[in-house]
Amino acid sequence: MTILVIAEHDNKVVAPATLNTVAAAAKIGGDIHVLVAGQGAGAVAEAAAKIAGVAKVLVADNAAYAHQLPENVAPLVAELGAGYSHILAAATSNGKNILPRVAAQLEVDQISEIISVESADTFKRPIYAGNAIATVQSNAAVKVITVRATGFDPVAAEGGSAAVEAVAAAHNAGTSSFVGEELAKSDRPELTAAKIVVSGGRGMQNGDNFKHLYALADKLGAAVGASRAAVDAGFVPNDMQVGQTGKIVAPQLYIAVGISGAIQHLAGMKDSKVIVAINKDEEAPIFQVADYGLVTDLFEAVPEMVSLV
Amino acid sequence: MRVLVSIKRVVDYNVKIRVKADNSGVDLANVKMSMNPFCEIAVEEAVRLKEKGVATEIVVVSVGPSTAQEQLRTALALGADRAILVESAEDLTSLAVAKLLKAVVDKEQPQLVILGKQAIDSDNNQTGQMLAALSGYGQGTFASKVEVSGDSVAVTREIDGGAQTVSLKLPAIVTTDLRLNEPRYASLPNIMKAKKKPLEVLTPDALGVSTASTNKTVKVEAPAARSAGIKVKSVAELVEKLKNEAKVI
Ligand SMILES: Cc1cc2nc3c(=O)[nH]c(=O)nc-3n(C[C@H](O)[C@H](O)[C@H](O)COP(=O)(O)OP(=O)(O)OC[C@H]3O[C@@H](n4cnc5c(N)ncnc54)[C@H](O)[C@@H]3O)c2cc1C
Ligand SMILES: Cc1cc2nc3c(=O)[nH]c(=O)nc-3n(C[C@H](O)[C@H](O)[C@H](O)COP(=O)(O)OP(=O)(O)OC[C@H]3O[C@@H](n4cnc5c(N)ncnc54)[C@H](O)[C@@H]3O)c2cc1C
């Protein structure tokens, strides 16, 4: 059994989610190879070779792969992956974009967002916004799987010494091109990797008021998230949305401020170790999952908390 | 330009679902069913393209039981011109659905196919990408903006780090994210008119598609419940507990 893990990267660094994906591969068992598809991604390949448990790194360096366009990367993964027992990618926006395309090319069903490995062919995954957990078995020759990072503790980024091998395969479908991107810049930790997350909801009233949460986050070394309502209202950008259809987080501490606790929001954070809710409505459903609830006005509580921590 | 919109009948997003006692699945008896919210956004986008004069005809398709005709009628009331039901009572996987949609694409030859990014029941987030692979088309997933110009479409996508824009040659596949638009409600006169719009019923057999699957659901369980904790009286008490009891700050 040999498993192909698709590295998540920006041509410069390996994203932490790759370490969780390798951890899932290690649970399945067998040799682990990592594919780095990109352009000028030599540093990524070097870093991938150091990941604990990785036996080989395949590097496909080509302008067609520079922006991870699925029309070009999926045929590459399908071609290389056909000889593997499993193909794994992180359930990031990139993994979700590419892997179903690979599965369709290989004519197999994909298993999305696994949270545990039961055996080499059987996995658990949440459905219905995490309100049910399905155990799914695959009899596909190549099992195509996306991995929810919060389900697997990351392997060590250092300690391995895998061989690095270039692959020549170039696929350029010519159906798509990259136009541009606007990436959020922040000095705070990345939402899905942060140990502490402070999230704001509609109760924040406007984008400017998020400054209170940024102040708290900076004191705690935390990332800042939001509910869908806060994103839809334009308080903060979409990459901050936590939930069923946003990002899934499971930090040591999640502080929900002015968030009611709709099931779609809970789906993205209820596996956090400790949950704090600050809400002025004592009936808010968020209190049903909170370890510590504080019924009060957030505009008083948050500044006070900033001064106390 | 013809636009094909794919819609799925799912449990309404407000319903708190229950796992069946025998762990065979989720109890869907007497539960409110609706159009998947991302599919509503897909229909709305198609209707806006028609209002702008970009689209000339909107065809909606659903794969599912005969009751999915309700959701197709809703889409017709929202502005779609005609509907196709690929009738199947089975729980089809995304690949099977994508293969059926591919057969419909071959038949209808749309320039643009709009789907939801994910169905809120199975949360797969696969079908659009699979349809794109099977048809060899470009894909703009998780779209927050769609602009057709000439023979291409620019799609702005919600990605983990922010937003990305790609340009795709038509025909192309788009899957919707939450911020693409705010769907309208159907008006009563339009609901009445929708009853007279054409709705064709096909079968997987008639389309020549095998819906065999490599996945099998072994069991479905309720998640581990999280119990409510305590209410603290002040910020000071909260900070004290986080420091000394939970030891997380
Ligand atoms: C298809 C679909 C997908 C969705 N995906 C997601 C998702 O991924 N993530 C997500 O979050 N939601 C998602 N939602 C939306 C979800 O259903 C809720 O609408 C949303 O989470 C509500 O956000 P909120 O809690 O901020 O707002 P509200 O429900 O309006 O809650 C605001 C809360 O703030 C409190 N409050 C107000 N003022 C104060 C104050 N001064 N002090 C203290 N408390 C105050 C109120 O008591 C209230 O509880 C989705 C919905 C659908 C249909
Ligand atoms: C308890 C239970 C467990 C299940 N477990 C699995 C499982 O483990 N793996 C699995 O693959 N399937 C499973 N299924 C089947 C699953 O419900 C879906 O029917 C199937 O996976 C289709 O994919 P999706 O809805 O997740 O598509 P997504 O890719 O999430 O849907 C995206 C979009 O595709 C379009 N679309 C999807 N389905 C249809 C449709 N029927 N008609 C028209 N358009 C559609 C819509 O535009 C939708 O917004 C299970 C079903 C149940 C009830």
From TrEMBL, chain A:
List of residues binding FAD: 202, 227-228, 241-245, 258-265, 279
Domain Electron transfer flavoprotein alpha/beta-subunit N-terminal: 3-182
Cofactor: FAD
Domain of life: Bacteria
Entries under CDD domains matching the protein: ETF_alpha
GO biological process: fatty acid beta-oxidation using acyl-CoA dehydrogenase
Role played: The electron transfer flavoprotein serves as a specific electron acceptor for other dehydrogenases. It transfers the electrons to the main respiratory chain via ETF-ubiquinone oxidoreductase (ETF dehydrogenase).
Subunit details: Heterodimer of an alpha and a beta subunit.
Name this polypeptide is given: Electron transfer flavoprotein subunit alpha
UniProt organism field: Pseudomonas reinekei
Taxonomic lineage of the native organism: Bacteria, Pseudomonadati, Pseudomonadota, Gammaproteobacteria, Pseudomonadales
TrEMBL record, chain B:
Record-level Gene Ontology MF annotations: electron transfer activity
InterPro entries in alphabetical order: ET-Flavoprotein_bsu_CS, ETF_a/b_N, ETF_b, ETF_beta_N, Rossmann-like_a/b/a_fold
GO annotation terms (biological process): carboxylic acid catabolic process
Protein role: The electron transfer flavoprotein serves as a specific electron acceptor for other dehydrogenases. It transfers the electrons to the main respiratory chain via ETF-ubiquinone oxidoreductase (ETF dehydrogenase).
UniProt domain Electron transfer flavoprotein alpha/beta-subunit N-terminal: residue ranges: 23-211
Name of the featured protein: Electron transfer flavoprotein subunit beta
Quaternary structure (record): Heterodimer of an alpha and a beta subunit.
Family designation: Belongs to the ETF beta-subunit/FixA family.
A Pfam family it matches: ETF
Keywords from the named record: Electron transport, Transport
Superkingdom as given in the UniProt entry: Bacteria
The keyword rRNA-binding appears for this protein: no
Cofactor(s) for this UniProt protein: AMP
